[in-house]
Design goal:
Layout lengths: L2 H29 L26 E3 L47 H11 L17 H9 L33 H15 L6 H13 L4 H18 L4 H15 L8 E4 L11 E6 L6 H14 L4 E6 L6 H12 L2 E4 L6 H15 L3 E6 L7 H15 L4 E9 L4 H14 L3 E5 L9 H9 L3 E5 L7 E3 L2 H9 L1
Parallel strand pairs: 1-2, 3-6, 3-7, 4-5, 4-6, 7-8, 8-9
Antiparallel strand pairs: 9-10
Catalytic activity: GTP + H2O = GDP + phosphate + H(+)
GO biological process, one term: SRP-dependent cotranslational protein targeting to membrane
Protein name: Signal recognition particle receptor FtsY
């Protein structure tokens, strides 16, 4: 074979290889999904706040079967239990036990009230028969004095504040999720709309979801759903990618969960219907007392009568704080002495609510660490004692959204003790990790019913999955 023929054969082979290489590159580029940002003629107005036209949903009292949730391991810690916001050991720890709480005797208060009547009538009545006229007037004065009249001290009359209507409340709370939106929503949209979606891009999406506290399981589900739907639906532009992301996130929040607060009475109180009973529980510093006061404002604005039970008897300012909330909305407050038995105070509050014919009794309990088994057992006893007087319709667990993963551990233990029926996430405006909402619902199977988006008295809002995702994405 001549040299010229060999040269032509080599040239032909090189040409074929070049053609195959170019064809492979072209096909690979065509398979990639490009989500590059395009110039938009119109831009949506800024704000992207948490918006909804409805108010907080209320439902009649009742005890439907609580949703099943996985049982977590109980953390045991030796030592004395710590209570209150400022103390680690109860002031009456030496006296407190786990024995059954003695219910208040209905006739005991009557006996204590009659004792002062016998004091103003000493043995001076015997000399009253003596014919000495000068001593008769002073002897008659203590006998006729109205000693038993001022037994019940009336509450001071305070003009109730004007309460904002609950309808459309979230529209007035726009922009409160700015920190979560900038980290969570804008980060995801930047990744999905920033270019070709290769493996590195999907890894960045996973990292963004994990940093927002969605948890490993929820993150894996969302990423898998996004990857599959993008291919199936043929998503080719950022607008379609954003719509798909919203759909997947809303679905992960389980919008079908019942989110109405069961705070309406069992029938008409005027005809013997008992009030709805709501227990507010949680660890120290999450905002239980504030949440109780804000929920009372919501109920009063809805035309309901409310009674507040100050069962946090260990934190010095708890009863005073709740009394302030009560005076602002015109609600009666039942409280005990500092260090009193919280179960007895809660029982008295519910009993008073039944007698007064109110619609709802809100019981604020003492903050307790979930690792303290003694106090957790005490909380369970509070619920059992209250149920001897009336049915407990709602147990709201207040979680601080800024605590992240630790909030999940707290929620698991509280759910085991008192069958939590709803979650209230406070301080959601102060965290960049709005994804805690996803993880709480997934881990416990308990719906998030209310969210706190500020320090104002009317900054308690209902949780709506669609509105929440819209606020995160902007």
């Amino acid at each position: 074979m001549s040299t010229t023929a060999l040269i032509w054969i080599l040239v032909a082979v090189v040409a074929v290889l070049a053609i195959v290489l170019v064809a492979g590159i072209v096909l690979a580029r065509r398979r990639r999904i490009s989500l590059a940002e395009k110039e938009k003629a119109e831009r949506k107005p800024k704000g992207g706040g948490y918006q909804t036209g409805g108010g907080i949903s209320l439902a009649p009292g009742g005890t439907p079967a609580p949703p099943a949730h996985p049982a977590g391991e109980r953390t045991e810690v030796d030592g004395q239990p710590g209570v209150g916001d400022d103390a680690s050991v109860p002031r009456d720890s030496k006296r407190r036990g786990i024995v059954d709480v003695t219910l208040p005797d209905e006739q005991a208060p009557a006996a204590t009230r009659t004792e002062p009547v016998t004091e103003p009538v000493p043995a001076q009545q015997e000399p009253a028969t003596a014919p000495v006229p000068a001593q008769r007037p002073p002897a008659a004065e203590p006998v006729t004095a109205p000693v038993t009249a001022p037994v019940v001290v009336p509450e001071p009359v305070v003009e109730a504040e004007e309460i904002e209507p609950t309808s459309g409340r979230l529209e007035r709370l726009r922009g409160r999720l700015a920190r979560s939106r900038s980290t969570f929503g804008q980060g995801l949209l930047g990744l999905l709309g920033g270019g070709d979606l290769d493996e590195e891009s999907w890894t960045d999406v996973e990292d963004t979801l994990l940093l927002a506290d969605l948890g490993a399981a929820t993150t894996a589900e969302i990423v898998e759903k996004l990857r599959g739907e993008i291919v199936t639906r043929g998503v080719r532009n950022p607008e379609q990618a954003r719509a798909l992301l919203r759909e997947v996130l809303v679905e992960a929040l389980h919008p079908a969960m019942p989110r109405a607060v069961r705070a309406l009475p069992h029938g008409d109180p005027a005809n013997g219907g008992k009030p709805a009973v709501v227990l507010v529980v949680g660890v120290n510093g999450t905002g239980k007392t504030t949440t109780t006061g804000k929920l009372a404002r919501v109920l009063v604005a809805d035309g309901r009568t409310v009674l507040l039970g100050a069962a946090d008897t260990f934190r010095a300012a708890a009863a005073e704080q709740l009394a302030t909330w009560g005076s602002r909305v015109g609600a009666e407050v039942v409280r005990g002495n500092e260090g009193a038995d919280p179960a007895a105070v809660a029982f008295d509050a519910v009993k008073r609510g039944v007698v007064a014919g109110v619609d709802t009794v809100l019981v604020d309990t003492a903050g307790r660490l979930h690792t303290k088994t003694g106090l957790m057992d005490e909380l369970g006893k509070v619920k059992r004692v209250v149920e001897k007087q009336a049915e407990v319709d709602e147990v709201l667990l207040v979680l601080d959204a800024t605590t992240g993963q630790n909030g999940l551990t707290q929620a698991r233990v509280f759910s085991e003790v008192v069958d939590v029926t709803g979650i209230v996430l406070t301080k959601l405006d102060g965290t960049a990790k709005g994804g805690i909402v996803f993880q709480v619902q997934r881990e416990l199977g308990v719906p998030v019913k209310l969210v706190g988006l500020g320090e104002g008295p009317d900054d308690l809002a209902p949780f709506e999955p669609g509105a929440f995702v819209d606020a995160l994405l902007g």
